[in-house]
Prior knowledge:
Blueprint lengths: L6 E6 L2 H12 L2 E5 L3 E5 L7 E6 L12 E3 L4 H10 L3 E2 L10 E4 L5 E4 L6
Parallel strand pairs: 1-4, 5-8
Antiparallel strand pairs: 2-3, 3-4, 6-7, 7-8
Amino acid sequence: MTLEWEQVIVHSVDPVTLGQWWAEALGWVVVHSSDEEFEIRPAPDRMPGLDFVRIDEPKTAKSRLHLDFRPDDQDAEVARLVAHGARRVDIGQGDQSWVVLADPEGNEFCVLARRRQ
């Protein structure tokens, strides 16, 4: 049996706006856009992608699934994402080597420290 990971679904009050935010943050391309769904991928034929799907209720609690990103320069990437509209959040992580941010709809994600050589 073979299983291929195709995408992560992100429920969103405004999938077009949030999907465009993530496309710009990641430098990914838009592969589908409608009022109800907005899909992005690293390249048109590369998986997995992120698929933003409309849901009427706003996020109310800590996300049960989040994305982790490992940049070359954590401080620079955090600054870039915050300037792009992300915000720092405290989800009880304490003093850690990663930084927890939230996108414009409050979905948490982590920017990890540079991998040790």
